[in-house]
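Please, structure for the following, as tokens.
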Amino acid sequence: MRKFIRVMKALSDPNRVKIIKMLCEKELCVCEITAVLGLAQSTVSKHLKILEEAGLVCYRKEGSWINYQLSEGDDSRYAHAMLEHLNEWLADDAQVRDILTRMQNVDRAQICAA
């Protein structure tokens, strides 16, 4: 039951759900997520840590970049199931549509260099 509760708690925050929806589209760095959501970098990092501990996201290093992506969900069948559903869910939600639109205008090279 512990893994189930961890996944549910991770998804109980609207900003973490938004991060998942963004990562459904493509992998992103903290700067990109920060720019789209308008949150502090430290806040985004905390959200990503919670999502990672729940088995929902993972990261890979590419040079100086740390890219976050959806986990394969191998550690938890609950994480895997929720990621499958979240990929489909909330497509008609105005907030989700807004962040996905804003995401298209984010230029990693420009915002991360600042």
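Residues 2-112 form a domain with the Arc Repressor Mutant, subunit A fold (CATH 1.10.10.10). The first strand starts at residue 57 and ends at 62.
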